[in-house]
Amino acid sequence: MITKEVDLAIIGAGPAGMAAAVKAKELGLERVIVLERAEAPGGLLHQCIHNGFGLHYFNEDLTGPEYGERFIKKLSAMNIELALDTMVTHLYPDRSIIAVNSEWGEFKVLPGATILAMGCREKTRFQIGLGIPGSRPAGIFTAGLAQRLVNVDGYMPGTEFVILGSGDVGMIMARRLCLEGAKVNAVVEFMPYVGGLIRNEVQCLHDFQIPLLLEHTISEIYGRDRIEGVKVAKVDKGEIVEGTERSISCDCLLLSVGLIPENELSIEAGVQMCEETGGPMVDEYLQTSVDGIFAAGNVVQVHDLVDNVTLDGERAGEGAIKYIDGKLKKGPREIKVLVGENINRVTPQKIVGPEEVELLLRIRQPMENVELAIGEHFRKKYRVLTPTEIVKAVLKPSDLAEHFESGEIKVSCRSRKKGAGQ
Amino acid sequence: MEERVTETQVLIIGGGITGTALVRELSKYKVDVCLVEKEPAVGFGISKGTQGVLHGGLSLFSSRLVKWFDRSIDVATYIKTPLHLKEKFNIIGRPIFLELESKLNVKIKKTGIIQFAYDKAEMRAFEIIKEKAEELGFTDIVLLDRNQIRDLEPGIDMSKRVGGIYDPNDYVIVVPEWCMAFADNAKQNGAHVLVNTEVTGIEEKKGYWLVKTNNGPIKAEFVINAAGVHSDEIAAMVEKIDWAYVLFDHTFFVLENKGYLKHMIFEMPVPFEPCLMIPTPDGNILGGVTMYQHKIEEKNDFLTTRQGLEHIIKIPESFIPDVPWRKAIMRSFRAYLMFNTRDMDDMLLYWPRERFLNMITCAPGIAPSAGLALEVVKMLRDKGLDLTEKSDFNPYREDPRGFIDLPTEIKNAKIEANPAYGHIVCRCEKGTEQEVRNAVRAGARTLDEVKFRVRTGMGRCQGGFCTSRVLQIMSEEMGVSPLEIKLKGGNSYILKQETKELRAKGEAV
Predict the structure, then answer these.
(1) How confident is the model over A116-165, as pLDDT tens digits?
(2) Which residues of chain A lie closer than 8 angstroms to B302, CB-CB?
(3) DSSP helix/strand/coil, B389
(4) Distance from the A54 Cα atom to the nearest Cα atom in chain B, whole angstroms
(5) For chain B, which domains are there?
(6) Which of these, A204, A383, B54, B337, has the minimum number of CB atoms within 10 Å of its CB?
(7) What is the ipTM, given to two decimal places?
(8) Considering the entire predicted model, what is its pTM?
(9) Is residue A85 within 8 Å of residue A99, measured between CB atoms?
């Protein structure tokens, strides 16, 4: 078996993995290898042919492939070793890796540090609550698979669609299918607000006059061989309202009902997982509970913008290099970041160093006139916050100092009385 | 392209576990044998919706205990009644499966089975079962107290359960995989297996049967009806039948098994609902209930219902409350258990006409299939069919998959000889490009059959990532456009048209 000794191994060449590799190389790391299961680097950016990428990171409006291309070019310019069509099959607590490809067969990688950048996967019809009941015909796809079929493979999975869930991929696919001449009969959303970005609601649904059914769900799928339609029902406080069912015909159902970080390898390596994010517990350097294993991007938590994933990747790259050089700074004690009132999740889950730390968090439900409170000192007011967008909060060393004693810092979000404290 | 057969000595109708076990058995002899299956693959009828348990001594008689709750008859008397046909064939058939595992290269998982009791009466019933099973040579069965159960399965909630019984020798298979293995091996040995071939009528001619199908008529000396839940329709083509099938709702979840469960576990709480959780050979858990209160009226009704799903999720939650089961759901499906009204306790095996045999199977029917195959060979011989053994029968089926489980040296030798083995297309189950190609070469034409042969689409992403790649490889291997590929039978095409076709047609909104 071939064994490759490297300084840094990165699992996944999507936006997080590519950014981590570039950053590590820029900071002087010699032997960096990126292991990618697909035939090309870039992850899902290839199939995201719409624009809206890079507004923050590049200050430009790019398509997915354009955004990816910038990093792919850097990878090759910087001579970063990229193993494509390469599946990582095992990751061990000593951060060593077993992988398979056609060229090297089954091989081993022994890295100084490993970065997990496997991204996430889509929930299926069986994973929404107890699953959508009914028949199990052809014609049901996750939105991301449909996107790949239409944009990369060149096939339409249907002509008349219903889309369940208003995640970003779902809304973007609704518009895409309209542009291809298909009908989108409805986008059905369980919650009272869309699951993706507001700009996608406007540009993808409203601009194309696609009916959006908020507080609705699909209560049954029918059609024996190929889907023929769905039953849609109103939802109140999370329960189907009896007697509100109606049928909507379609020859294809797309699901955009949430993403799950892909962490089978992390779990095998013994990485401690976080209930709220579905990803590993990380510190501000994005190091997991296992020494020398870092994580970045959607494997840690599902992000809203690729720009943020890139930043995450860079941070993990930096963290890994510090780890290898033995320069990770440690504070007097670890601080646990606690999820408080109205907060859905926060990363990092713990703070180990004395430096400035950026927290990424999501709130539970849309709120107006709120104050974000982190620990004793950090306060910030917002006019509107939605759960679909990640909120960033930078904590200065002075915000942290006294929390090293208690070992905890709590993040919460409270509504403010009108006019108070302005 | 499809193979045609116009004449055969023995025609088997139905490619479920019963028909495929039989066609393989008959392929050992110098006799023309042909199996017809209406679905696009063998094992795609009710065989796909079974638990796949090869019943050992305990589970064999636990099936009887089900009747105890049903009929409030004296349990000791009922357990001690003579063996049913299905039990007899089960006892013969089970070791055959175990022996064929390595020859046919298909998986069996030894799970053992633990059954729980809620009171002393149930524990006493277990004692009777143990005694009866021991008489038949199942000698490893033991009664367990609470603590012994906790040692075996630490997660089980033993607050209300008082004890149990344990048989270490229960096994589980994935039934469609075995149907495919049986059929593949039969084909290797000269048998014909025709899929997408539905019997539409049967005429008795002088000295032979004329079986009409959608792919033309087949002349057959002997006809064997192994059509599973459709065997009543086939039987009715040659006789007026006085029995019908009774179907009971059998709804299941497939759950991720992150070390939650090692053994098959079973219990029958009142009201009368046998609950089962099985660690499957695939590394998942199959958890479900037979709902005897819920009869299924329509054979083609496989619809899950909200009420049904809400009901059965309580099973794993009741057995092992500490696991977040709702987050472990990978898939759900509904099938049914079938029994016939002539004998609710047993299968039927009879000749309604000369040279026409009815194999009217019932639950449990998996292990019995291999025993039945031997019996049918004997019955055919008794009816005068000349069955001489082939000297060159090959009992071995090549391993069409399982690449990922091979030792490194063998993997690397295979990759060197054929780089397509090094290309893993399925991230969840680690199926390779070459295995998908092998599956198509073995006859798979639908995405579902590839799924059962390579496991692509079986894992946690349920095909979200691999479908596009698998379609591409299948299309190359089959020499057709991906638009021609179906999920399963009928009109289940996966893709509709090429991108831009709709626009070109001017149908844009």
Answers:
(1) 999 999 999 999 989 999 999 999 999 999 999 999 999 999 999 999 99
(2) 135-136
(3) strand
(4) 25
(5) 7-47+175-243+343-382 (3.50.50.60), 106-169+245-340 (3.30.9.10), 403-504 (1.10.10.1100)
(6) A383
(7) 0.94
(8) 0.93
(9) no
